[in-house]
Amino acid sequence: MFFVFGPMGQMYRGGPEQLAQVSPVRRVQRPQALRTRGPDVGDEPPEARAWAPAQQAPAPAAAPAAPVNVLAQVAVSAYAQTEQGPQQARQPLTRVSDVMTTGSLSVPPDVRVNDAWQTLAEYHVAQAPVVDAQGHVIGLLLRADMAPLDLLPEPGSVKAAIELARRPVSEVMVSPVPTVAPDTELRRVARVLLDTGMPGLPVTDEYGTLAGFISRTDILRAVAADPPLDLWS
φ, ψ for residue 4 (rounded to 5)? Predict the structure, then answer.
């Protein structure tokens, strides 16, 4: 089940198929990361590659590794498992509640953009639900929206940049914002994230009360983790 919440309350309730037809819900443009790493080995100039090997002395031959007693390792591992007792069977991850982050960070709509930026940076997150005084989600704050490229200060415009940093979060947040119920299938969430370009969705009940957050990273982590992620059940 998906919802759409804004400052005026719930605007939509239903499946992901009609979510894209809610006109106020805009697609989020994801910023491209800047290249900050050094050049690859293959990026070196030809002359550097030509003489570099000649400057290095040949590495000494590695000492032969000690033989490993595989049977002894298996026996020790089996003995350790017997001490742990029977293990409960692991079930595939299928629902939002299986992978979502509970107790996620949220920000109020009247806090200043500069203060919100500091909070998100402190917790090392790129987005946070915006929650009103009643605890209801009314928007989503993205770090990328707090300093878009066309608003970066130019020489002589520092004062204007400072004024922008003093705006309330309510002026830069994504609103209305889609949210998702905890019992929703993960594959439906993945489809909505692709359609909207959003980095994640707040997890709420039908009244908009925040229960957590599910991000692209949460889903990717579940894909690589054990128990397995089942998107097709």
Answer: -130, 125
The predicted structure's pLDDT at residue 223: 78
Residue the block writes with tokens 């983790």: 225
Question: How remote is the C-alpha of 189 from its chain's centroid?
Answer: 13
- Secondary structure letter of residue 31 according to DSSP: P
Backbone angles phi, psi at 74, to 5 degrees: -65, -40
What's the chain's length in residues? 233
Asked whether the beta carbons of 107 and 169 are under 8 A apart, the reply is yes
CB-based burial label for 67 (10 Å; 0-12, 13-18, 19+): exposed
3-state secondary structure of 146: helix
Phi, psi angles (nearest 5°) of residue 27:
-80, 135
Task: Give the tokens for residue 176.
Answer: 């209305």
Give Cα separations from 222 to 17, 189, 194, 218, 228 (angstroms). Answer: 24, 14, 17, 6, 7
Quick one: which of 209, 198, 207 has its CA closest to 219?
A: 198
pLDDT in tens, 52-97: 444 444 555 555 555 555 556 655 665 566 555 555 556 678 899 9
| H or E segment and range at residue 151 | none
